[in-house]
Amino acid sequence: MSDSTAQISAAARNKVQAQLSLVTSLADTLTDSLQKMIGLNLNATKASVETSLAGPQQLLTARDPQEFFSLSVHQAQPYAEIALTYARHMAGIASLAHVELTRVTEDEVNRVSQHVVSLLDELERLAPAGSESILSVMKSALENLRATLAQLVRSSKIAVDTIEQNMNATKAPAPQKDEAQTKHGATRP
Q1: Could you tell me which of 137, 104, 122 has the C-alpha nearest to residue 33?
Q2: Does residue 82 contact residue 52 with C-beta atoms inside 8 Å?
Q3: Where are the domains of the chain?
Q4: How confident is the chain (189 residues) per 10-residue block, as mean pLDDT?
Q5: From CA 184, how far away is CA 154, in angstroms rounded?
Q6: Residue 13's Cα: distance from chain center in Å?
Q7: Exposure of 177 in the CB half-sphere (CA atoms within 13 A)
Q8: How distant is the alpha carbon of residue 76 from its chain centre?
Q9: What are the φ and ψ backbone dihedral angles of 178, each rounded to 5 degrees?
Q10: What is the pLDDT at residue 179?
Q11: Secondary structure element (H or E) that encloses residue 140, with its range
């Protein structure tokens, strides 16, 4: 009886340590991502404030309404660049967090799956005759769960890759208008 109590105690201790390790790893990843997002927000705010302070001074130098509106349009561009850069960095932070969280989750799922398989093997060894079908169903369910989780991981990787590709596509310069269109308005067919 004492031997089984020691085994149960050791198993419980190992399980608690594994859960604590998992939670610590997830918390570290989330904390790191949160710190990066806070830094990004501070930098974006700083850039926005600096841009905002320079804008009104330039607008006050305008000599006529056309120059005023031209300066206003020109001043909108830095805000668009700040927003685009912010979005790229935020997507990068989210992508890194996703990769790390996926890795931690896959490791935990694999560890738990191996543990469950070893338990099922032990049950199979100790089970009375005629219970093979039940154990077979349990193993099949475990394999289905593994396949579902693998598909979920693949789908989430595809989604993250798509987001990264879209963000990279925004880095490309916008197509320039044809000079004839700019000078004379729309071209005629």
Answers
A1: 104
A2: no
A3: 15-171
A4: 69 80 88 92 88 76 84 80 86 86 83 79 77 81 82 82 76 48 42
A5: 51
A6: 32
A7: 9
A8: 29
A9: -65, 140
A10: 41
A11: helix 132-169
